[in-house]
Amino acid sequence: MPMEEEVHNTRRFSYAHLLAATENFSDSRKIGQGAFGAVYKAQLMNWTTPVAVKRIMRVADHERAARDYDNEIKVISKLSHPNLVPFVGSCDENGELLLVYDLIHNGTLDYHLHYANTILSWGRRYKIALGMASALNYMHGNHPRVLHRDIKPGNVMLDEEFNAKVGDFGLVRQVPIDKTSCPMTIFGSSRYIDPQYCSTGCISPASDIYSFGVVLLEIASGEIPQCLKGNGLVEKFRRLYYSNSLLDAVDRRLNGDFDEEQMKRVILIGLLCVQFDHHMRPSMARREALLFGGRVAAARAPVRLARRGVSAGAEAGGSSSAAAAAQVIGQDEAVEWVKKDRRRMLHVVYRVGDLDKTIKFYTECLGMKLLRKRDIPEERYTNAFLGYGPEDSHFVVELTYNYGVESYDIGTAFGHFGIAVEDVAKTVDLIKAKGGTVTREPGPVKGGKSVIAFIEDPDGYKFELIERGPTPEPLCQVMLRVGDLDHAINFYEKAFGMELLRKRDNPQYKYTIAMMGYGPEDKNAVLELTYNYGVKEYDKGNAYAQIAISTDDVYKTAEVIRQNGGQITREPGPLPGINTKITACTDPDGWKTVFVDNVDFLKELEE
């Protein structure tokens, strides 16, 4: 073939031409090496400026590599934006897959942030952030939209004027508007990859937005993200956000030479981009507008992302009620607010292997009522809610059956559920008659007078039957084991607003218990925390899931939990399709709790 020709509106170069231009792909011409191949500096014949030739690595599955290569050409040949590396042409000959781009002469953002002899000024950093935002907004605004899937400083080239040029489109993918794509294999750079993409395998614009957010925080701090357990840089900025100390993380090499409002703007936008719930991340269009001067609430005061300012949920297309998503309260205010928040334990969630069998056992042996049952075939699970009264006023169990899963590991950390009955012996006789398992016959508790018994349900969950008179809350306890009781009590008091109802040490049997709750034990469900002397860790298994607690404001709840050392596992916001606002967290021992908006919960029950 000739040295070059036009094919489907893209240049096709001959292999001989590119071989000569790279001096037989000489090492002296190599300017980069990545996971998918090497990049060479080349001088094309009759070409005034040098170009970069990307040589795709030869792999065993050449057919798949060729498909990916064709996909990259198909997508990038249609892109044209001042902040994207321009595509020049390609070559597919002699078993080689080659791509030709303009050569951007001034290195990468990664090089200038971390390895150059001179410090990258703040003015240039801000300019680079603006350019990246513009490029990604252009890609996401295409029809179909284009997802980069590997946004990181090493893929941001800089020209002589330090204009950003986003490059390396090896993982690029087109996705129709309002759709996601779920490839089987996870690709990307671990320091910048969206954790929700890792857990689901599904990509969307929110995946690029997360990566962009990490890069913004790296631009501000000059630190390389670490990912030993989560993203260390992201967690660092989150901690500083809640202590009103965001500027403490600014790159010290700048020696204070930066525009404070711009710096806060970049950090705040970065934090909004890396929210765990991808539905709460702003669109790139909104993100670009904010960087170019759009209103970020109280950008002069880093801990105020107030209702009238940036609303991550609203920007992402969420409901206006999500506008409170970024509202932050101080520690003194948090203490008072938790005391006033209307909270109660709603339900306890755990997994079972035979839902109908368990329902039958609970209704016939334990006297519960089946309150509602819902099947979610698209998610391959079914829920059943059982209890001793309506969900709007009673603590209930939520059983979850996952299609095809017949058994679970309960582990050693979960203890038991407690049920108050008027006659323990009579209840035990009924359970025996129905073929149930009794692990402790009725009798006084050790060292006390209360009559108790222990039974097991069909899945092996233990229930303590406690003899009491009539009570408004028969399902009265959830017992969990912890490694540091005082630490746990402190957390549940401050983060969850629970009261320490009583604490009892039993040195003879080497354990201590603490009863925590939102009201007296005889009228409310409570959490029983048990510490066994000398035992710091337990196996939690995969059977027990979580407790759900009501709240007036999931956003403030999440703030308070963070302030007191809890880990937010789901950022506050509405559930897709249901619109019930929730947030989820883990305590210091790793026990999970979900907080549910009071008003939304009642609306859900009415539907």
Specify the helix fraction band.
Answer: 25-40%
Class by alpha and beta content: alpha+beta
CATH class of the largest domain: Alpha Beta
Helical run tally: 16
C-alpha geometry: elongated
Radius of gyration: 29 Å
Number of strands: 27
> Strand order of the main beta sheet, please?
13-14-15-12-24-27-26-25
The span between the termini is 68 Å
Task: Average the pLDDT over all residues and give the rounded result.
Answer: 84
**Main beta sheet: strand number and arrangement?**
8 strands, mixed
Oligomer: single chain
Stretches where pLDDT is under 50 for at least 5 consecutive residues are 295-328
The CATH topology of the largest domain is given as: 2,3-Dihydroxybiphenyl 1,2-Dioxygenase, domain 1
Summarize this, please?
By secondary structure, this protein is an alpha+beta fold.
Plain-language structure description:
The strands form 5 sheets. The protein has an 8-stranded mixed sheet. The radius of gyration is 29 Å and the shape is elongated. With 607 residues, it is α+β, with helices and mostly antiparallel strands. The chain has 3 domains: 4-102, Phosphorylase Kinase, domain 1 (2-Layer Sandwich), CATH 3.30.200; 109-328, Orthogonal Bundle (Transferase(Phosphotransferase), domain 1); 345-606, 2,3-Dihydroxybiphenyl 1,2-Dioxygenase, domain 1. The relative contact order is 0.07. Strand 18 and strand 19 (462-467) form a beta hairpin. It has 16 helices and 27 strands. Mean pLDDT is 84; it is low at 295-328. One of its GO terms (cellular component) is plasma membrane. InterPro entries: Glyas_Bleomycin-R_OHBP_Dase, Glyas_Fos-R_dOase_dom, Glyoxalase_1, Glyoxalase_1_CS, Kinase-like_dom_sf, Prot_kinase_dom, Protein_kinase_ATP_BS, Ser/Thr_kinase_AS. ATP binds at residue 54.
